[in-house]
Design brief:
Length: 361
């Protein structure tokens, strides 16, 4: 198991705990004033990928908050698709008549970012960031309906970090199939590919988008972009890149344990499978947490504590779950249960007691 990751710190865990409940938004000086208007637009009723549009907007803002991003990036994250865009037909504010209303909420500069982020097609933006990257001045030129749009270095930096947060909040296997090969995907017939379109699908983690997020993190290290936004805490503050092959293999190994495609009498094979998944992709939390539970069951408490601490650390880095069968808040709660069990060197020996575990104050 990889052990050279940053370790869990009390400060990072405390901040994550503060963001477990949506009430944190009502206490945030930058976000709280606009929440009544956002909620009043019906975002809690709109379907969006792995939840509602409200879940998505709040989840993106939460990740950007954990990443210590400036208010303009966090406000963009909270309102990033409210005018609609090429991939989302949800329109909460009419871009032809309500831009002034949004400007009154967040100011002209941030509203300009929100509108521009909705106007720029997301797939060409991601493709350009990954393949060509910004020019020597940090600028990026995109063609939108025959019109060139030049993004400043500041815009590129903010759009990159918001795209990273947007992707990690929503992407899982259903979108892997819907947008197969993204950002170089092609439309596919829903009748022919009916099975791929059945929502929500098997809810596997994404098999290729985490590696793309790691590459977007590298864009933020461009000399002309450095210092414009804080480097996100994922991938050890964007110091590492995850290969597509390692991500795909690690996801398959993890899922084989989730689906119990392993010997069910002895846990050693599942433990080794998870350890191999972690070696290939040490940057997501959930394999560590499954491993921690198996180690607790085997009473190998020291190893379990290491695994649980790594898993919790990564949850505090992402602010959203990788395995979207369960929300980030529940994964954090479960990770704290695992860490507590390892530290106390106690774990239930019967299934009914496992059902009753709780955090001790």
């Amino acid at each position: 198991m990889k052990t050279d990751l940053n370790t869990l710190t009390p400060a990072a865990l405390e901040q994550a705990i503060e963001l477990l409940d949506d009430e944190w938004l009502t206490r945030d000086p930058a976000l709280a004033p606009i929440m009544p208007v956002v909620l009043g637009s019906g975002v809690g009723q709109d379907w969006h990928k792995a939840g509602t549009f409200r879940h998505h907007l709040v989840g993106v803002a939460r990740t950007l908050t954990l990443w210590q991003q400036p208010n303009e990036a966090r406000l963009l994250g909270l309102l990033h698709s409210v005018y609609g865009n090429a991939q989302v037909d949800i329109v909460k504010f009419d871009p032809n008549s309500e831009r002034g209303r949004v400007q009154a909420l967040v100011g002209e500069d941030i509203e300009r970012l929100i509108h521009l982020y909705c106007v720029v097609p997301r797939a060409p933006l991601v493709k350009a960031l990954l393949e060509s990257g910004p020019d020597s001045n940090g600028q990026l030129t995109l063609n939108v309906d025959g019109t060139p749009i030049v993004l400043s270095a500041r815009d590129v930096a903010i759009f990159t970090v918001v795209t990273m947060a947007d992707t990690c909040e929503q992407w899982y296997s259903w979108q892997d199939d819907i947008y197969s090969g993204y950002p170089n995907h092609a439309p596919r017939d829903t009748g022919l590919h009916w099975a791929a379109g059945l929502w929500p699908g098997p809810m596997r983690p994404t098999a290729y988008r985490i590696s793309q997020i790691s590459r977007l993190g590298q864009v933020l290290k461009h000399p002309a972009l450095e210092g414009l936004v804080p480097l996100p805490s994922v991938f050890d503050h964007c110091q590492h890149e995850l290969s597509e092959s390692d991500e795909a293999a690690a996801c398959a190994l993890y899922w084989s344990v989730v689906q119990q495609n392993q010997p069910l009498v002895c846990s050693s094979t599942s433990i080794m499978t998870l350890e191999q998944a972690i070696r290939l992709n040490p940057w997501v939390a959930e394999p560590y947490l499954l491993l921690a539970q198996l180690l607790l069951t085997n009473k190998t408490y020291d190893q379990a504590q290491t695994a649980a601490a790594h898993g919790l650390h990564l949850l505090t880095c992402w602010g959203n779950s990788w395995d979207k069968r369960i929300g980030w808040d529940a994964w954090v709660s479960w990770g704290r249960i695992l860490l507590q069990g390892a530290q106390n060197r106690q774990w239930p020996e019967t299934l009914n007691k496992l059902n009753n575990v709780a955090l001790k104050s």
